[in-house]
Amino acid sequence: MVDGRSLQDVDWSTLPVPEDDGAVDHLVGARLTDVALPSTAGESVSLATLSGRTVLFVYPMTGTPGVALPDGWDAIPGARGCTPHACAFRDLHADLTGAGASAVFGLSTQTLEEQRSTVERLHLPFPLLSDADLAFAHAMSLPEMEVSGKAMIKRMALIVDEGTVTHVFYPVFPPDRNAADVLAWLKANPL
């Protein structure tokens, strides 16, 4: 619970819907920049060098039980819902890999320590990557938002084949349906 609210039970109809601002139009067909990102699995990962098909879902930040969300969090289009977003990918992980994903990763600007806590708390079967210094976000010109003086990456999901972005889901709303949308895309677009 955060502020007396469950991080997973969200009434999406009460939240502002993010609009497609064209901020990811440059990504389809782009080669990923070779940036090593710390992983909760213990090693650094460069998404640019991975073989096969990678699913990367990006989110601003997961809430931490007992810690208040930033002021005005729910009023920011696309901010709320990072825990349901991650849990949906958790719940469909086997289906995603069965549909051709060689790897699934989550990415945010949270610290590796914060992300380790998230992996443990949510029982995620895949690693989270930390872009706390925004090296990957800046190299790929990912859309950002500033909340309480902290830069965060806007929510999206990328399908990456052999280091090249094949498809982008953006904006993502509601977040808990994104994993199912990614799964449907994978099934309709096999390698």
Automatic annotation (TrEMBL):
InterPro entries in the cross-refs: Peroxiredoxin_BCP/PrxQ, Redoxin, Thioredoxin-like_sf, Thioredoxin_domain
| Gene3D superfamilies (UniProt xref) | Glutaredoxin
The Thioredoxin domain, residue ranges: 26-191
Q: What are this entry's molecular-function GO terms?
A: thioredoxin peroxidase activity
Which PROSITE patterns does the record match to this protein?
THIOREDOXIN_2
Question: What SUPFAM superfamilies is this protein classified in?
Answer: Thioredoxin-like
Question: What Pfam families does the record tag this protein with?
Answer: Redoxin (PF08534)
| Keywords, in A-Z order | Antioxidant, Disulfide bond, Oxidoreductase, Peroxidase, Redox-active center
This one is known as BcpB protein
* Species this chain originates from: Hyphomicrobium nitrativorans NL23
